[in-house]
Amino acid sequence: MPATARRVLLLAPPLAFAAFEVIHPQPDVNAQAVMEVATWFAAFHAIQLVLIGLVAISVAILADELGAARAWSTRLGMGVFLIFFSAYDSIAGIATGLAMRTARDLPAAQQQGVWETVKDWPGWDPPVFALNIVGTLGWVVALVGIALIARRAGVARREWVFVALAGVFLMGGHPAPFGTIAFGCLFIAALVHVRTSAGADQAAVARPRSSPA
């Protein structure tokens, strides 16, 4: 992969994800309020589903450059994150939005019936929310694991600390502020890594070579 494309895939997804979570729809918890934003609610989570895949690529690139790509924690954690967090996003976000959008054309009693079915999907419906918990734990295992490997390898503290914080903060949920902080920390870690690597490359080029004896 060209170096420029690699850097774009490392930096752009976490920055975009951090900014995107600022506009995460958070309507009042009632049928009318959710119906009013139902189309955007579904569209937002469809876009977020793409960002989940892209940010996983960012993590994979960063893990590779920090020597953690082959670690079991990285592979297992990111696999679990991709599968379970994407499933949660599809049900709690896209399906909820589409269901409430369809409910707009129904009589009030039927609207309430649809609402009673989906209202807990984004929050505390046990089977659906379990997908969120498992997916988030996968993210935590991957990011904290990468941070620990980077720390043992002697990577600068400011870099591995931000990687670890990216893992920990997502436990507060993906909407702002916690999602924005989590993906923002990942972006900062990636940016620090890029700048540190660029500085090391420049120093290597500038270092005079010893002349042959």
Walk me through the structure.
The chain has 213 residues and is an all-alpha fold.
Topology:
Blueprint: H1 3-20, H2 31-36, H3 38-65, H4 72-103, H5 108-118, H6 126-152, H7 157-169, H8 178-206
Helix pairs in contact: 1-3, 1-8, 3-4, 4-5, 4-6, 6-7, 7-8
CA-atom Rg in angstroms = 21 Å
**Could you describe the largest sheet, including whether it forms a barrel?**
none
| Tally of individual helices | 8
Order of helices and strands: HHHHHHHH
Helicity range of the residues? over 70%
Supply database-style keywords.
mainly alpha, 77% helix
Short description:
With 213 residues, the protein is mainly alpha-helical.
